[in-house]
Every structure is written in structure tokens, then in C-alpha cells.
Design goal:
There is one protein chain. The chain has ten helices and twelve strands. By secondary structure, the protein is α/β, with parallel strands linked by helices. The chain folds into three domains: about 5-115, Rossmann fold (3-Layer(aba) Sandwich); about 140-210; about 220-370, Histidine kinase-like ATPase, C-terminal domain (Heat Shock Protein 90, 2-Layer Sandwich). The strands form three sheets. A five-stranded parallel β-sheet has the order 2-1-3-4-5, with helices on both faces. Strand 11 (about 350-355) and strand 12 (about 365-370) form a beta hairpin. It is elongated. The protein starts with 13 loop residues before the first strand and ends with a strand.
Amino acid sequence: MNLSVLTHSSKPSRILVVDDSPDNLFLVQTILEEEGYVITLAEDGRSALEQIDLSPPDLILLDVMMPEMDGFEVTKRIRENQKLPFMPILLITAFDQPSVVKGLDTGADDFIRKPVEVDELLARVRSLLRLKRAIDEREQIARQREEFVSWMAHDLRTPIVAAERMLMLFQQGALGDLSPGMEEAIITMARSNRNLLAMVNTLLEVYRYEAGRKNLIFSPIDMQRVVEEVIQELSPLADEKKLSLKPNFAEKIDSKVVGDRLELHRVLTNLIGNAIKFTDSGSIEVRLSNICNAKDAQMSWLLIEVEDTGSGISPEDQKMIFERFRQGGHRRSGSGLGLHLSKRIVETHQGTLDVKSELGKGSLFRVCLPIQKP
């Protein structure tokens, strides 16, 4: 047995050969089995799809011209099935270039012409199996990363929450009176602990989105009420810095969208909270209107603008401010996750999030959301 055909788990690669000609099946089976591959056969497209559903192979060799369902249709159905793992498809064709182009556009990964030459067939099989292993390894690494982050975030939350409760007991005097110095130190510790918990929660949310495991609950929402709630919740922070936090809503505005209320609340909390954080004097204005420079002019849009008179963002930082773990140059910049997560949430709602800013003159964040009927 040729050891080059074995996967990292020392199992021979499984190949499904699909052809309506028994002679062709026998020929390809003989060639591949001599190289140590495990071969299963199918004489038509429907039986091939049934086998794939039951036990997906590592590679599919697929004849183009077959009765009832040709190779193009089989390829199309395989690629449309999101439940299947990635399986390279090698088309076997006796036709010219247009046939090859159609097959590749349908989702095939490579092709070989009839009559099949043994060396070329084996070379293409080895190449596609290398592709399969590389993609499988990449997906495994992504799963392991996701599991690690989920585990880490969960395990970090437990001691952080416990520390928060203990600090709360200290602040309430349950463990005895505190000196002014101790009280100030505990307030600082509690604030740092809350920031750490928020960072862990945000990290977990980011990876849920990126792994496609974030479950959103869509329902009709009046975004004007959500904006008013967030402003009311964050007003004490603005008052502490003597900042003006004011709404400015257009008349007769249509502010009803379909989305996940908690996630959109998270976006507004992040944007308005950042505006307060990076503004030392002046104001933060939150505007609502239906004027949005969106691509689809056939739809109605809601524009939410958060503008501050803060320190502004440099052109270099603006280019990467929505990237994961890319912190801005400001000394108060956080983990680099909040804006990344906000953009993911907005895009999940088929909207856009962008920024306009100039150093020393403040920043303007713009959220465009489609107004949809429930």
C-alpha cells in the first residue's frame, strides 16, 4: 500500500466513483485500489447522492454525461447541501472547454478528460486529497479555537463574577467598616473587575458570530425607543463629565425595523458609550432620520448617527478601527472588540456601520438599517 494516500489518522482515503458505464467504473476502481484507496461505486447521480448523505467520501470522481441526472446537477446539489463537509469533486469529461467551464462554475474542483491516463488521474487525485486534508485541518483548528475561547470565557467568568460579589459585600460593609483609603481601592478594583467581565463577554460574543453560532431573535422594533433607552441609561456617565448628551430626531420619522432588540441595544450602547469615553468637553448628539446613502434605493432606511466633539480618530486608525483586536492610538482605547462586534451585528441585520472623523474635531458614527415589514 502506498503510504502517501493515508490521512493523518492512518486511514486510507475513501473515494466515490460515479459513472453509468460499468467498464469505466471497473477501470478506475482497479487503478485506484492498486494505490491503496478505498473505492465505492455508483452507477447514477441519485444513488451517488444517497451514498454521500449516508457516508461522505474524501473525494468524488464524477462522470459528466449520465442519464436522468448529469454530473453538473450532482455537483450543484452537493454544493447546495450545507450539512455536508467539503469534498473535492473531480469531473471526468469527454467534451470541450465549455463543458469544463460549466463544471467548475457549478462547484467542481478539477477535471480530467477521457480517455483517462493513469498517471494524470493519480496526480489529480493526490492533489485534490491534499486540498481536502488542508481544508479539514483548517476547519479543525477553527473549531478548536472556538472551543478554547468558549471554554476560556466561561471559566474566566466564574472567578470574575465571584470577585464582583465579594467586592460588593465589602462596599456594603458586610465584612466590616472600611477606611477611606480601602473604600477608594475597592471602588477601583470593582470598576476594573466589571471592565474585565465586559471584555470576556464581548470576546465570547465575537466568536459566536464568527462561528455562525449566534442565535438572533428577530421581531419588529421601534429604534427610536431603543435609542431613548440607551441615552437614559448612559446619561449619568455624561453628567459625570459635564457633557451634553442629547437626541435629535427628525419629524415623522419611520424608526421601525425588524431585528434582534438586545443586539441592536448593544450596538448603540457601544457607540454612545465610546462617544462619552473619548469626549472630555462639549456634547454627544444622537440623530435619527430616514436619509441614508444606502446602495439599494428601492428600500427604506433608518439612519442613526452618533456625533461627538471628542478627540477624533486619525486616518490611519479609521482604516482598521472595525478590525478585531485592532486598538486605536488613543490612550483610552479598549480591547479592540467593541466596534468589531458592533459592525458584525449591524451587517447581520443587512445594514452598514461607518465612521467619519478628524483629529481634534470629533467623530461621527453612522448606522444604516433597512426598514422592513415584519
